[in-house]
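Q: I have 164 residues here and want to know how they pack in 3D. Can you give me a structure?
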Amino acid sequence: MDQPTTTTHTTAATPIVCDMTTAHDTGPERMLEYQRLFAQALIGRERTADGIRFRLRADAGVEPWVRDLAAREKACCAFFDFRISTEGDEVRWDASVVDDDIARDILDEFYELPDTVADGVEGLESRLRERGLQIAANPAGTVTDVRRVGGAAGVSSMRGPSPV
């Protein structure tokens, strides 16, 4: 039976912030979890009118795993919206973001995650820099700010060593 779960919808006023300070895992641990999930269950992905979709095998335990991972991701990155549903033998994980250029760049990186997850948090940060985003980190390596280089718009930021 299809039981969609939709997270609280974000608005344009939702800040582009990722904060894992209260998370029970670290950025590198979460990246390893994505790597395991994709290796075990990913069967496809696609872009949708609203964002992206990961298609995963509906094997035993996959749907609750995806729901838990999506809830943890939403807890640190409120600018994401997730919808998880099961259709036939697939778990579908739909993701969208607020209407913001930086958020869309992060969503694009989330879409590429099955191919890039082995690069870890450092690889993600490097790819975001290649997209023209300036990343500031504290001496411990925690990302404290992300902004568009040379952007005239308001400052959007991303806090915490988030994998997304």
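Q: Anything worth noting?
A: The chain has one domain: 15-148. The first helix runs from residue 27 to 41.
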